[in-house]
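Entry type: protein chain
Record version: 2
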Amino acid sequence: MTPYEYAVLRFIPDLERGECLNVGVVVYCQKHDYLGVRFTDDEARMRAFAPAAALTEVRRALAGIAAHCAGDDHAAAESLGRRFRWLTAPRSTIVQPGPVHPGMTGDPDGTLDHLFERLVRA
């Protein structure tokens, strides 16, 4: 078992109200050289939560997060740890990371799946 860190990605349609809907999870495990993200763009669920929200912006933000995680042109030279720190830095946008939490895992990809099912799909 090795340490890992994760953060939940939250859809926040109205920054002043602060209400959120979990839409994804990002997991980083240094020892396994692993950085993974999984998210949903379940339009029906997001529309039920925020009928007037600009879902195009949500999809764009999630695609940007996935690209950065995968090492797009902007992040290619960065270590996985630096990418994770960038992804989990506080920001004021329609998709925001929650606090970073630690854990122990022997299978980071399986842990990502488990966290996604528990924290996003549940």
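Comment: The mean pLDDT is 93.
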